[in-house]
Amino acid sequence: xxxxxxxxxxxxxxxxxxxxxxxxxxxxxxxxxxxxxxxxxxxxxxxxxxxxxxxxxxxxxxxxxxxxxxxxxxxxxxxxxxxxxxxxxxxxxxxxxxxxxxxxxxxxxxxxxxxxxxxxxxxxxxxxxxxxxxxxxxxxxxxxxxxxxxxxxxxxxxxxxxxxxxxxxxxxxxxxxxxxxxxxxxxxxxxxxxxxxxxxxxxxxxxxxxxxxxxxxxxxxxxxxxxxxxxxxxxxxxxxxxxxxxxxxxxxxxxxxxxxxxxxxxxxxxxxxxxxxxxxxxxxxxxxxxxxxxxxxxxxxxxxxxxxxxxxxxxxxxxxxxxxxxxxxxxxxxxxxxxxxxxxxxxxxxxxxxxxxxxxxxxxxxxxxxxxxxxxxxxxxxxxxxxxxxxxxxxxxxxxxxxxxxxxxxxxxxxx
Length: 416
Hints:
By secondary structure, the chain is α/β, with parallel strands linked by helices. The chain contains 10 helices and 18 strands. Strands 1, 2, 8, 9, 10, 11, 17 and 18 form an 8-stranded mixed β-sheet that branches. Strands 5-6-4-13-14-15-12-16 form an 8-stranded mixed β-sheet. Strands 3-7 form a two-stranded antiparallel sheet. Helix 2 crosses helix 10 and helix 3 crosses helix 10. The longest helix has 16 residues. It starts with a helix and ends in a 33-residue tail after the last helix. The mean pLDDT is about 95.
């Protein structure tokens, strides 16, 4: 069933009796050519592009819970391509290009809103750093503008421009960035993949791998053994646990990142705004709530919940930036599990086990990378060659001295 304005009108006139499930509820087959572990945005996007772009069949996506219930539905919905380093910026620009055509590709309203992102500048040194970043963005086609103080005031007059500690001196504007409805991305990819014959198997947790003579043969699950010629892992914060089942150790740690939504307010934010003197980023949803986030909780965890000190710290950053939110009440908080790599950049690579592939270590960049990650991982699975924008995302880059340290803070996963 294709979604369209005509279909909506027809269903409205016929009592909405013609709608069908967005994807099939299927039982696992004994074996597949490709098994994707993880039914989040990255896994579903991988399955979609495997089927659509690379013409592959006999594909299954295994999800231990339900579609949209993991980190893909537990983030602050921001998409952007405002990176600096050559290992990252071309990849995220490729993601932005895919975001811009996503709804037409999937025939699904993912609420892509390119409302712009302003990274605020508070010091002269920060202006120089952002100018350099903007030049990198423009060289890769992402576009960037360096705004002075008055230009920022025209965009967001409610900010605290004369804060004694954090005066606002300008901003780096990324007009093509914005927000996308997070769980709708998972649903859209699931529906599109299902239409191309992909089996999406929910409530199917992987409990082990069957490996013979250095090659993966399949996976053990709570719904029985499933054979596979190739297996791809896209399980975010659970990456370390699953790869350990295959005898592999990863250069990542798992941390919880909290996100927050306030009560509904009248429209105030023109787009996404980030605080340059602390870790705080905020946008406003279509329902009016302020959607914001900041630092991870800092300790290793597999729990999708956080603690009050980080909530206080993030809210303090918001108050320093825009005191007008002081009376807004916090409506809800949730946590997503981040797989934080040693240099803050991800991995899309083959493992030491033949037929086993890994996609993870996304840190804060997971959601915004979804379409490019899926496309690049699908190409790797289908052809055993990396996508041209993902050649740097190797598992052995630390041994080779090719770290992609976007923040420049060294091998500290909790700081990336």
